[in-house]
Amino acid sequence: MTQLDFAVRVMTESDLPAVAEIEAGVFTDWYRANRKPQDPLPERSLDSLRYTTSLDPEANLVAIAADGAMVGFILARTWGRVGWFGTFGVPTQLQGLGVGSTLVDHVLGYLRPRADIIGLETMPESGPNLGLYTRAGFSVTFPTTIMELSLVRTADRYNGLPADELRMLGAADSGARRRAMVGIRDISAALLPGLDYSSEVAACEKHELGDTFLVEGPSGSLDGFAVLRTVPFRSRDTSGRGYIHVLAIRPGADERAVLVDLLRQVWCRGASLGLTQILTGINGRYRDATALLLESGFRGVRAAIRMASADSLPDAFTVGAGVNLSRWAG
Ligand SMILES: CC(C)(COP(=O)(O)OP(=O)(O)OC[C@H]1O[C@@H](n2cnc3c(N)ncnc32)[C@H](O)[C@@H]1OP(=O)(O)O)[C@@H](O)C(=O)NCCC(=O)NCCS
Fold it and tell me: Band of the pLDDT at 32, cuts 50, 70, 90?
């Protein structure tokens, strides 16, 4: 059912202002309809969209109507052989005309040969989205809990690390950097088959969104890392929030000790930049990690529904061990 004449093509740099405008418009409407009254969302910065699209430039698509107007967009990325799409939007007045499902079909055509797990996260309130994704071959898997660490409430626990004890990837020499990137790949793959966070680490660094913190084990190998975004995605964001995009710990390492080390680094860097809260997401697949985060001072704030295409590796649908924090939405 297509009542709108449109074509899908790869997103380009010149599309980004229209993507930012559509995204702010549809999510303002969505929040007003499903959550609480609010002012219009500020647009996402073009830099944040450049970072997002840099991970897999060909994966990000736009729908263009016959008159040249943009009538939808979808962002997508791969982390090794794990791919996901989102965020995704069609202007409110044009929804229900087939643009969204066509964008999903095209993005799946891109991701299928490149990924063994294809996933997404969506809002629990959105029944229509669950219908759309189920028809596209996705099944619900473990929910993701979005958690928040208040830097004020946890000051006693994490304050006190001298700045020169931060182990930041950006300050590493080329040998240490190479070893860290190998460790990042190893840890990712040990947590989920095919997962590789090194592209995410490199993209955050290249676009100067924040810092990557490292923890080494007694033998000098990497035991854990965390990517902290300190730059807001939206202009005029004065919330004081930072985001842990990714935090992963080597299976078999002392998870509690490595997590505390990473959080002390994140806390000190965040506090020095004037942040007041750090958000992150932990998927329910990593059952023990959710409890560990609560013990470490995080509080649950909301949930997201995670779905994976039914032909994904079974790991997407089974409980796993370890600490692997990230969202499949961005
Ligand atoms: C999700 C979204 C991108 C889908 O785009 P779209 O162009 O409306 O999608 P389609 O027209 O292809 O419709 C897809 C399905 O959703 C249904 N649908 C779309 N809008 C709907 C609405 N407002 N209410 C109920 N169902 C709706 C359609 O009927 C269709 O279902 P069907 O295949 O059973 O007929 C769009 O609705 C949107 O921008 N929503 C707000 C932002 C959002 O939720 N983004 C995704 C975050 S995970």
Answer: very high
- pLDDT, tens digit, 9 for 90 and up, residues 83-100: 999 999 999 999 999 999
Query: Which structural domain, as residue segments, surrounds residue 185?
Result: 146-326
Cβ–ligand 1 contact at 131 (below 6 Å): yes
pLDDT > 70: what percent of the chain? 99
- β-pairing, 117-122 with 138-140? unpaired
Average pLDDT over the chain, rounded to an integer = 96
Domain membership of residue 179 (yes or no) is: yes
Tracing tokens 């959105």 back to the chain, one arrives at 126
| Same structural domain, 217 and 311 | yes
Q: Is residue 128 in contact with ligand 1, taking CB distance under 6 Å?
A: yes
Query: Closest Cα to atom 21, ligand 1: which residue?
Result: 96
Ligand 1 centre distance from Cα of residue 94 (Å): 10
Residues 171 and 97 in one domain: no
The pLDDT, as a whole number, for residue 2 is: 52
Instruction: Look at the chain and count its residues.
Output: 330
Whole-number Cα distances in Å, 146 to 55, 162, 172, 243, 301: 23, 29, 31, 11, 6
d(CA 104, CA 72): 11
Closest Cα to atom 26 of ligand 1? 128
CA of 84 from ligand 1 middle (Å) equals 18
Question: What is the crossing angle of helices 198-206 and 174-191, to 10°?
Answer: 130
19 Cα–ligand 1 center, Å: 17
Instruction: Give yes or no: residues 193 and 84 share one domain.
Output: no
Distance 29 CA to ligand 1 centre (A): 13
| 65 and 8 Cβ atoms separated by less than 8 Å | no
The verdict on the CB of residue 98 being under 6 Å from ligand 1 is yes
- pLDDT score, position 163: 86
Both 309 and 231 in one domain: the answer is yes
Q: What is the pLDDT of residues 208-266, one digit of tens each?
A: 999 999 999 988 899 999 999 999 999 888 899 999 999 999 999 999 999 999 999 99
pLDDT value for 1: 52
Q: Is 34 part of a structural domain of the chain? A: yes
CATH of the domain at 47: 3.40.630.30
